[in-house]
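Quick start: what a row looks like.
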Amino acid sequence: DRIAIFEGGEQTFATQFDWDANGQLSPGPTRDPATLDERRASVGLPPIADSIAEMRALAAAEGERAPVDVAQRRAEFEAWARRVGWRA
């Protein structure tokens, strides 16, 4: 999943999270969301709703907050991904 995100693709199991436009910690782009929980169960992962709740609770407990400018964060990530060779 991490490599898929680094390469600009969709992840398979929704294990990689980031802040969304609404200021919520959410899974990054994921292929075929309709069958996501089936795929997750096949490798021993809990339902995505459980993981989302856990990730958000952990972030809140650690005082993490969404960046002030989500678009800037995404642009900086894109620039990094290109600079280090994850993207052309």
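That is the whole record. The longest strand covers residues 17-19. The radius of gyration is 14 Å.
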